[in-house]
Batch of 2 targets.
Target 1
Amino acid sequence: MCARVGGACSWVYIEDWDTFYAEAEKLYLDHPAHTRYSLKYRHTDGKVLLKVTNDRVCLQYQTDQQQDLKRIEKLNNIFITR
Amino acid sequence: MVLHDADGFLTQLTRMLERSREKGAVYVTMKRCAFAPAAPAAGVARLSPVDPADCRCLVRAVLGSTKATASTMVAAKDHRRFMKSYANIMKAGATA
């Protein structure tokens, strides 16, 4: 899992979407009852922040790209349909 | 926390996205709930294996600036319709 630590801040984001998606799917399939998926959208910044966590492992991804909306839909489907 | 039906929740979500345009953020959280609401809780330490068709997903939306909340439980059979509407709302809210 590639991660970038941003200076003094403790937030760690996964930079590559495919890695984030694969890890998020794996986390959910391993712990479906304990994993939750949060999305934070700020229109003023145009940013979307995704977090998938089971309270032990936390995966985060942020984006401001329009094309990532489709990918986010794919991720949504994991949680709703499985 | 107000529990809505799927359509009511989507209406609330649309309103929250409109209200967050100038300031604030909208948080949407999804988590699977593998229990029936009417099931008795007393003495049940572990849930027995649940049929995937019974699983529901709790979806919550919070408007950061006003702390307004909305939630809904999406049943497995409704998820396709809900996801279509949800995706449309997010696309409209994120692109306009």
Note: The domain at 3-35+54-89 of chain B is CATH 3.30.720.10 (Signal recognition particle alu RNA binding heterodimer, srp9/1).
Target 2
Amino acid sequence: MFERLLASRYIRTQKRHSILTICSIAIAMALMTILFTALSTYRGIERGIAYDAAPYHAKIYDLTPEEWEALSSCGDFSELHRFTEPDGSIAAELMFGKYHENQGEFLNSLLPGKEIYDGLSYNDEIIDYNADLVRLDLVDLNGRARAVQTIALFYVYVIFLVLALRMIIDTAFEVSSKERERQFGVLQSVGATPRQIVRIISLEGLTLSAVGIPAGLLLGLLLSFAAFKAILSSGIAEVFFSPDKAAKLLHLHISPLLLILAAVTGLVWVLLSAYGTGMRVVRMSPIEAITGKNARVRRVRRHTLFGLLFGWKGKLASRNNRRQPKRFIITVVSLTLSVTLFSSFSVVLDEVQTTYDDAIRSNGLDYDMELIVHGSPEDPHALQNGLTLLRDSGYFEIHEAVDSVFLSSADESITGHCLILYEAPECYDRAFEGGAPMSYDELTQSGGYILMQPAYDNGTYADSLGGSGSVALTYRYGRVVSDEEYDAMTDAQRENVLEKTGTDDETGEVSTVRYVKESKDIELSIVAEAEERRYAEEWGNADWYTEEGTSSDLVYLVSTLDAYNDTEYANFPSDVSTYLSGDHYISVNLRDFDAHHKALSFIDAHSDIVSVDMDLYDMQLQVRTVIAAVRIGCTFLSVLIALIAIVNLVNILSTGILNRKSELAAMQCLGMTRGQLCGMTVIECLQYALTACIVSLLLSEAILMLTSMMLRYMELSEQMSFVQYAAPVPKILISSAAAFLAALAASFLPLWQMQKESLTEQIRSVE
Amino acid sequence: MSFLRIEHLCKTYGKGENEVKALDDVSFTVPKGQMTAVIGASGSGKSTMLHILGGVDRPTSGKVFLDDQDVFAQDNKNLAIFRRRQVGLIYQFYNLIPVLDAEENITLPYVMDGRKPDPAKVEEMLGLLDLTARRHHLPSQLSGGQQQRVSIGRALFTSPGVILADEPTGNLDSRNSAEIIQLLRKSNRELAQTMIIITHDENIALQCDRILTLSDGRIIGDELTGHGGEANV
Ligand SMILES: Nc1ncnc2c1ncn2[C@@H]1O[C@H](COP(=O)(O)OP(=O)(O)OP(=O)(O)O)[C@@H](O)[C@H]1O
Ligand SMILES: [Mg+2]
């Protein structure tokens, strides 16, 4: 059969192209295999969980011996076990082996009078019905309907891939048929019938599939396995399951049926592509195919952008790329899809990360642990010492260590109250979000304060201070009155004494403290001003900080912990009514996330100084795990997309170059230098990459616009900060640059290989 | 009687200002067994006409009849079978299949028809074309003249009723080209093949039975040379 001869000749003489086509088929198949394996694994794990919960479809209690007989004589069960319950009654665990539209009604008909199922629900006193397992084993209508739904939903996802897959396989055939259109034209002109032409391409497709499809299945299984391992290694399993459960339930499920489905789909695709290209060749008249001329005469564009930019080389490059518009479009579409998908994955990844981070931060929980540094009002250095201990341990990074005290204004320079904040060095820059007016050391040395004005205030407070550089405040506190002192007091004096009753948290002892209210005037020097940033966002409701919402006019004065320890103020008597408590709550991050246990035992060993208030390790671990799993998933998809793009690119560009082998050689014969040749090639690649870049930008912005419109429509835009038009731009630029490099590699490889032949050899060769 | 009848053949390329009238109302008949030369300036539409006669291109308007059968009334499949059984086309630019060697190229139309070529006949054809030593060479390994001879062999091998040759000796030296013309003439006599040969060579034209002259897509001359004209009408 000459069709077979020609098909095998084409495959053998065009090794490079055959290999590329096989690669395309294999990658398309691999993608499909991964998807199908994902589906079967998902269902498998779901079933495993359902089976783990109860290893039967139904367990029926309180059976009479006759009823047991009825069950065991019915052949519709794949498994049936008899149990004798502790109270002596008979129970049966069973698995349905046959499909019944409604298993409940089937059981009713089998055990009349038992009233297992009332048409809506099961009588859970006499039957334990594992609906999930029944559904997943597809033995009732509900299960089958749900499975069809899942698969239908799945196929919606698959449709996106169909685009990519068809494109890969189509490209391979498109490229091959373009190259051989002329040859098919000649074949037709010497009398090959359309059917024979189609048969040649189909035979070729079949032969290549015979290698590509099994290879793709294998590759897909290997990749699925690797992906599964990688995702599990992120520890995501432990977030949901105990370790032994995870080991038992979480493994890859490979469904031979789905694999066959994938293989058949792949084969159909290949044949469709082959048939499509064959038909296209056949529709042309032989002479059209031979001369490569379309009946349609296209006008040659004399002036092109690239011609203007790069002179005659640019012009030639433009002409070359326009010569086969379909190929140009396929390349650009494949590049665009890859670039867009690539960048949108990383945008999604970033979004997931920031959404988590935001969620955590909005709860004020963006740290690993909250600790208590024990102290007493008499020891103003307790916090400082505690921090030093933690820092020196090497396990912790101080995330936030702030102490604060409310003071009221002594005169009218500041209305209302003033919150004095003392920041540890680690937290200082963050407090100002990088906009600190002076360094920590400078502030420490000055011993002064930074006035932080509310954002809405427009500097009114600073003005109200009159540029004096200092602010007079009153420190109000309660001085404890000892029993002896109280006894010595006059009645008039005693009238000022107040009592405060408190319960000790640990011992439950109720004690009463007598105190008198006293105050001291102090003057704090203001060394700089800054705009309030972090506190407004972080400390609760933003509305609270608008002018209307402010219940009291609060002004922040910020200083350093070191300065605080040196002030006279630190040695003020402070007790019952002040805000300077004995215990300091601080938050820390773990330097080494995995050294959690060591960090805990360090704290245990120093329990007189610090103790754990809140350990967020588990929560942070979960967040990290989920993000890691998402990241692995995205990476795998990205790698696959990159693979598709690269195979397509290599396929198209290298054939493009090899096709023009004799033409390029002719140009070199006319005196084109190799440098000029390379220049032209670079410009061609640049055209591809630039076009893809621009289209991707437009595409992703359009998608973003749609998303934001949808969010607004669904009135979700408040909750989702998703739409950031600038976000994909750098990613698209980067991936376009990568695409450009890939295109260069794909073009220069065949060029470099061609240089090994002499020019006359190159001119003579016709591919 | 096997003869070729062409009626009001027109072929235009392109549209509007790009329009080219390659053939403009060409009509003539070629009786069975006549060897006709077509001459004319470059670009006068010779190749275009030949391609249409060979059924590899469709005319814009007009008809081609072979043995009173309308060639372009057939569907694609029958047109293909027509090409492989009834016509042998020798192209100006050979159009060989690059993945097949010389021998395979020659026997291709025959094999495509589902028939097995007779080895003796293959040997004979290769010998006639002086290609025996090159039978297993790919087209890219052959010289221009050798490629041309392969394409001639391909056209002759199925012994079709009509041979259409587009400058079959364009790449050959005078001795070789004389031999080729002898070969074609012999085939024409023995098999009563109808032949149309496009040529720029006066000598070759004069060896034919009839000379058609094309200019700007029209026939401006049609004369019998007067030798071997037994089949002439
Ligand atoms: N595909 C095409 N598109 C546009 N014009 C065409 C096409 N093919 C041929 N022509 C034009 O048709 C005319 C006839 O071309 P044709 O090839 O038949 O000439 P020819 O007589 O064979 O010339 P030569 O002796 O140089 O081979 C020419 O003017 C040519 O430019
Ligand atoms: Mg010509």
Note: The two ends of chain B are 12 Å apart (CA to CA).
